[in-house]
Write a structure and sequence with these properties.
single chain; mainly alpha
Length: about 60
């Protein structure tokens, strides 16, 4: 059994509304992808630096990791 959703007919008829909505959504998606990619790259860089620092202390006896 389906659910019916009432949609305002004026919104369906207003093509400019749909075009503007679609154009507004696209830049937000691209920005979100860019931000996510930047966040992943920063995490990878932080992990690489942590490993590098930890590896540099491996030769010292007084360092317990």
């Amino acid at each position: 059994m389906g659910t019916r959703i009432r949609i305002d007919q004026s919104l369906l008829d207003d093509q400019n509304y749909w075009e503007e909505t679609q154009q507004d959504a696209e830049p937000r998606r691209k920005t979100a992808r860019r931000n996510r990619r930047r966040e992943i790259e920063e995490r990878m860089e932080n992990n690489r630096l942590r490993r590098h620092i930890a590896d540099s202390y491996q030769g010292y006896d007084h360092y317990d990791a």
